Structures are given as C-alpha cells and as structure tokens.
Amino acid sequence: MIIGIDFDNTLVCYDQLLLKLLKEQGFKIKPNITGKKKIRDWVRCQHDGESIWQKMQAKAYGPRINEADIFQGAYDFLQLCKKKGVTIYIVSHKTPYAAADSHQKNNLRGSAIKFLHKKGFFDNQGGALSQKHIFFENNRYKKINKIKSLNCDIFIDDLSELFLDINFPKSIKKILFSPHNPIISAQNPITAAPNPIIAAQNINICSNWQEIAQTIFG
Q1: Which of 31, 48, 68, 121 has its CA 20 to 30 A from that of 87?
Q2: Are residues 190 and 94 in the same domain?
Q3: Helix axes 36-44, 15-24, angle to 10 degrees
Q4: Do residues 23 and 128 share a domain?
Q5: Same structural domain, 34 and 115
Q6: CA 187, CA 201: separation in Å to the nearest integer?
Q7: Could you give the C-alpha distances from 170 to 150, 166, 174, in angstroms and in order?
Q8: Any idea what the CATH number is for the domain that residue 181 is in?
C-alpha cells in the first residue's frame, strides 16, 4: 500500500502559532476564531488584511515554523504505517519562497525539512519517513501529477479543492482531513443536507488522525 500525505495543515498544525503572531501584532481575536480557515478569514476582513495574512503565512511556514505543532495522532499514524510496511510519501504544494518574501530570505521547503528532522520524523531518527519521499511542488497541477507518478493508493489532504480537481485520479482513495468543521465540510452549511459534490467524489472525511487510521486499516 502507498499512502500520500499533504504537509501544511494536514501533518503540521499552525493554529496556535497564527494566533500568537496576531497577538504579537496587537490584534485581539475572539476565542471562537479557531483553525486556519477561520483565522485567515478574520484577518482578511481587517484593514490591509490580505497583506497581513500573506506576511503571517510567510513567517509561520518559514522562520517561525519550529513553533508550529504536529496534529495529535499524526506521528503515531506514521509509525503504524511503518509497522505495517506501508510506503509513505509527503507531497505538498509549497513554493521555495513565500509571495511576501520579496528578498527570498527564507526557503520554505528547507524550513519544512528542518522541522521534520527536529521533530524526529525521519527513518534515521527512528521515525517513519524517508527524506527521499518528501516532494514539494509549485502548484496544484504539478502536485496531482506527482501523486499520480508515485502510484498512491490513498491520499490525505485538508483541501477538498484537490480532490475535486478534474485531474485528480478517481482510482485513489480520498481522505479529507477536516479537524475543525467535519460536519460542515460534509454537508451544506445552511440546510445540513449531505454535500452532493463531496458525496459524488467518494471523499472520506475524518476529523482526526485516529479516524484516518480507522478508515484505512479498520
């Protein structure tokens, strides 16, 4: 079995770091604003919000990434895969530099690799990942092509847009990681009826890594 996994907001959780960065800039945010999407939407509603958000992301994904967290259960899931002989690839849509980093001071891909090493994820540290199995792509189209070329049986991602892309292979089992709004992701937020687009694409929605393990291994 070959499983592909996204990196940002699937394996790595930036929620607390983003809130910390906002606090450092003097913003006061309500307690119910949690999760990347809600934080992003809130920031974008502020004066010059898009610019603020881009700069925050550049910091979080680059020089401040070591302050980010691993989603609970993710490390254990990878160890379970290793025990079962499952091949794991990380495939991420991540450009070398953030759009807000005009001077290209912080290499986002290098920061991600260093983060995984610091957290003990690589096989030479007793972890479950091979550094040769980490891939970063410049856009979604290239990410999908990489997933295809790796012959993934399953792919785990936090963005439904990836799975709804017409180029995403129908043969690959899709697991949408939705830790903050699992019900809304699966349903119409107004009527609470099943989302026909999600249902038609056979997308499995999981709110945590324990559910992902159960979905894959039973």
Answers
A1: 68
A2: yes
A3: 30
A4: no
A5: no
A6: 14
A7: 15, 9, 9
A8: 3.40.50.1000
Q: Which two tokens stand for residue 118?
A: 């610091």
The torsion angles phi and psi of 157, rounded to 5 degrees, stand at -150, 155
Clarify whether residues 149 and 127 are in a common domain: yes
Between 194 and 180, whose confidence is greater?
Answer: 180
- Please choose, from the candidates 14, 52, 60, 63, the residue with its C-alpha nearest in 3D space to the C-alpha of residue 34: 14
pLDDT tens digits, 49-67: 999 999 999 999 999 999 9
pLDDT (tens digit per residue) in 137-149: 999 999 999 999 9
**Nearest-angstrom CA–CA distance, 202 and 196:** 10
- Structural domain containing residue 107: 2-13+69-217
| Residues 116, 43 share a domain | no
pTM: 0.89
> What span, in angstroms and rounded, lies between the C-alpha atoms of 60 and 108?
10
pLDDT at 22 over 60: yes
